[in-house]
Amino acid sequence: MRNILVSGATGFLGQELSNRLMRMGYRVVGLTRTMRDDLIGVPMKGDLLYPDPFVGPELAYDAVMHCAGHHPGETDEVEPLHEEGTRRMVEEAKRLGVKRFIYISAMGAGFHAPTRFQRSKWTAEQIVVHSGLEFTILRPHLMFGPGSRTFRRLEEAANRPLAVLPETKPLIQPVYVGDVAEIAVRSLWLERTIGQTYDLGGPQSLKLEDVVRHMARDIHLFRIVTLRIPRRYAFYLLKKFGRVGPILTGEEWEFLQHEVTRQDSRWLIDYGILPHSLALYYSPLT
Predict the structure, then answer these.
(1) Is the pLDDT score of 236 beyond 80?
(2) Beta-carbon neighbour count of residue 110 at 10 Å?
(3) Would 113 be classed as within a structural domain?
(4) 75: domain CATH number?
(5) In the predicted model, what is the mean pLDDT of the chain?
(6) Domain membership flag for residue 283
(7) Are 72 and 255 in contact (CB under 8 A)?
(8) Structure pTM?
(9) Residue 219, pLDDT score
(10) What percent of the chain has pLDDT over 90?
(11) Residue span of the structural domain in which 67 resides
(12) Would you state the pLDDT for residue 178?
């Protein structure tokens, strides 16, 4: 049996990825700070922010999948986990003799990115790129699917006759969490993906209000009224309350405010995947 070490195995993507790996016959060893009932696979106890050795099975691992990370707006301290945590995971991969390393970054990661979340993800990418490991970096846009925090709040907004949304001018490309997990799994045997970085966006470019309307049609079968908070008032709310309306955290709004869609078709070709549409996922007919 082939063994895969997964960080962030109890997270939104980590659970989907672990389930998919186990269905394919892999043994999943999930890194966790505390023993949890929702952990899928064999536990390895350890904290990425502390130098204490990880405690778990000493196996011959085929790959490390580094999914651990903060959700935008989850905390003000994103740099330690993304940067030092990634450095720790790279060191652990080398200690275990693992060559294949798959890192889950985020769309828009860059040195001059507008948010701390994206800048810290870019720093983590550089740690991976210069690690000497056979890496693949995946940069998904906002992921939808069962368990998504952001989309759960959007679904709650769609369940009301009136949705109050902050204004977001750029379009977004929501990507299905199952597609991202499938891409990560296929990276294990597709040698052409080694050394590559992929921007993963869904097949649709939508405004935030259009996303909510798709959800409303699924829930109610009728259109809802959306009230947009202008940008100048959104900045005021962000400064005063740390949130922009009842739906988005400040970091999520900043992420959407500056994000641009990326038409990176290489992953469609390299992985041979037909991505799931958000409109179809929230269609009342499916």
Answers:
(1) no
(2) 11
(3) yes
(4) 3.40.50.720
(5) 83
(6) no
(7) yes
(8) 0.88
(9) 67
(10) 39
(11) 3-141+175-201+262-274
(12) 95
